[in-house]
């Protein structure tokens, strides 16, 4: 039995070097979905890839794909105020926003593989948000999904942990797709009520406190790539190498843009999270986290241009939406202006 166990684990380890089909989720294709900003609604058109359609393509000499999560998508603000739409209005290039809320690097690779031969582009901007390593790991939602799986899946997970995990992640993303469509049906334009946020001046930080209750190690699991986040960082880096190889083999360019967590630039939020109970590290906001150190090393080794937004966001407390983790209009304008200046 011991020999069989070691053999299975050996095969599982070797298989890490082969490609994996991660899968992704998306908005309902060719549909219209309501989005909100402080209770005000706008209807967003969703295209054939399940992503929101931006500014109509014009006669341009350059076309860029933007891969990312809700920060890139622009959750909580009007579409016209997202940095991608600002760039579409103010530059001679076309910026295709493929960001979807909740995306991980696995999803971004999967979506890229789906559209790469069907969309013309010159460059890919991969937006790495500070929690990407954490989200690549076994989040509470994913673990809850795993607990509901069959007994034989758990046996396979014991013998082949990594390959079973990749399979489980793919099934998990399929579940997220179903859940997303179910929830969006409740927000159909014909029966949606406008939701008004509380106007109280007292800051309760409900989102941040809920995050602590679910993941008290959230920040360490995101930024400490030498210790608690080491395994997830290795998984994340493997996916990044795959994405970079595919982009380079297509004679395209990859640019990485790092969007920091608020504890890496906002001193007020750093203290808020500390008061809530998160174990904090002053190096995150005063110098470099282990994640950004590793990211600098990787991009230099792979000759990938890196735009580190911490340089422009450091010690600012005006870049987040009220009681939220998402960037506001000021931050999106800042990012647009930075990208306009980069070659």
From TrEMBL:
It comes from the Bacteria. SUPFAM superfamilies: SGNH hydrolase (SSF52266). Keywords: Hydrolase. InterPro entries: SGNH_hydro_sf. Gene3D superfamilies: SGNH hydrolase. One of its GO terms (molecular function) is hydrolase activity. This is SGNH/GDSL hydrolase family protein. It comes from Leptospira montravelensis. The lineage of its organism: Bacteria, Pseudomonadati, Spirochaetota, Spirochaetia, Leptospirales.
């Amino acid at each position: 039995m011991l020999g069989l166990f070691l053999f299975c684990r050996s095969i599982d380890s070797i298989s890490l070097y082969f490609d994996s089909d991660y899968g992704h989720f998306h908005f309902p294709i060719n549909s219209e979905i309501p989005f909100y900003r402080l209770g005000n609604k706008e209807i967003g058109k969703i295209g054939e890839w399940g992503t929101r359609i931006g500014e109509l393509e014009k006669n341009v000499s350059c076309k860029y794909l933007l891969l990312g999560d809700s920060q890139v998508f622009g959750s909580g603000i009007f579409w016209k105020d997202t940095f991608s739409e600002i760039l579409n209005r103010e530059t001679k290039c076309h910026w295709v926003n493929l960001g979807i809320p909740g995306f991980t690097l696995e999803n971004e690779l999967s979506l890229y593989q789906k559209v790469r031969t069907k969309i013309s582009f010159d460059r890919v901007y991969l937006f790495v948000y500070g929690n990407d390593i954490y989200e690549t790991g076994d989040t509470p939602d994913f673990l809850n999904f795993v607990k509901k799986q069959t007994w034989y899946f758990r046996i396979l997970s014991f013998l082949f942990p990594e390959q079973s995990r990749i399979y489980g992640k793919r099934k998990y993303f399929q579940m997220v797709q179903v859940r997303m469509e179910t929830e969006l049906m409740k927000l159909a334009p014909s029966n949606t009520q406008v939701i008004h946020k509380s106007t109280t001046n007292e800051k309760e930080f409900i989102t941040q406190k809920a995050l602590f209750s679910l993941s008290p190690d959230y920040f360490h699991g995101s930024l400490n790539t030498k210790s608690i986040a080491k395994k997830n960082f290795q998984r994340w880096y493997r996916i990044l190498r795959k994405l970079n190889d595919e982009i380079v083999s297509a004679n395209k360019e990859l640019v990485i843009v790092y969007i920091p967590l608020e504890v890496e630039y906002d001193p007020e939020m750093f203290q808020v999270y500390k008061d809530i109970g998160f174990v904090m590290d002053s190096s995150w906001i005063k110098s470099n986290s282990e994640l950004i150190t590793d990211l600098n090393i990787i991009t230099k080794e792979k000759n990938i241009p890196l735009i580190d937004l911490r340089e422009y966001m450091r010690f600012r407390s005006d870049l987040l939406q009220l009681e939220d983790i998402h960037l506001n209009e000021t931050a999106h304008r800042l990012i647009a202006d930075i990208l306009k200046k980069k070659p």
